[in-house]
Specification:
3-stranded parallel sheet; about 25% helix; about 200 residues; alpha/beta; Rossmann fold
């Protein structure tokens, strides 16, 4: 459903998908403060600039500039491209990217904390979920279907399985937002089972 972040109770939604449209009026400061509180309180926002095709020039796109202006008053954590071993790549499906209508854009998440003394990365604060994901691959266009289940938009990627991989990436994003870093804790299962057997 459509959400108006300036009026609606954001705490009712665990995930917000925000497509960026250059040239639209910027949200007011109070709206962005509400969004900042939502993310700090465990909410998860996917910002999609939908401009992966235009990013090939190497210059900032109008959508990227618009997002930068929007987030200028939000406490955005340090971001990095999704690492290959990030829990997002294995929350449900094992995947290596987050394609949408496009498959060449980069997807960004909060920087993982450095490894602890045992060499493993510690769990993040709260539920272990990055509060923000930024992509340029136009995820919703790949997910959109008509009433009969047919795709609404053509995809511009090289793989014939691009739509399927986009859906898998979307499922991983939802699982990640709803379950936190539970999948990262799977590395401890053998030790827990050994203790239970003693």
């Amino acid at each position: 459903m459509g959400v108006d972040p300036s009026r609606d109770e954001l705490g009712l939604f665990p995930i917000l998908y925000w497509p960026i449209v250059a040239g639209r009026p910027l949200p007011g400061a109070e709206t962005m403060r509400r969004l900042d509180a939502f993310m700090k309180g465990g909410g998860f926002v996917i910002f999609d600039t939908r401009d992966a095709d235009a990013q090939r020039s190497g210059r900032a796109t109008p959508e990227a500039d618009h997002l930068k202006q929007m987030l200028s008053i939000v406490d955005v954590p340090e971001l990095e491209p999704v690492p290959r071993d990030h829990v997002l790549t294995k929350t449900f499906y094992l995947i290596d990217g987050f394609p949408g209508r496009y498959d060449r854009g980069q997807t960004w998440v909060e920087v993982l904390p450095p490894p602890g003394p045992d060499g493993r990365g510690p769990a993040r604060a709260a539920d272990g979920v990055s509060p923000i994901v930024i992509t340029s691959n136009d995820l919703a266009a790949a997910w959109a279907t008509d009433r009969r289940g047919g795709p609404l938009f053509p995809l511009q990627g090289s793989s014939p399985r691009l739509r399927e991989m986009s859906l898998r990436g979307g499922i991983n994003l939802v699982m990640y937002a709803l379950t936190g870093n539970y999948k990262a804790d799977q590395v401890h299962v053998p030790a827990l089972l050994e203790r239970l057997g003693q």
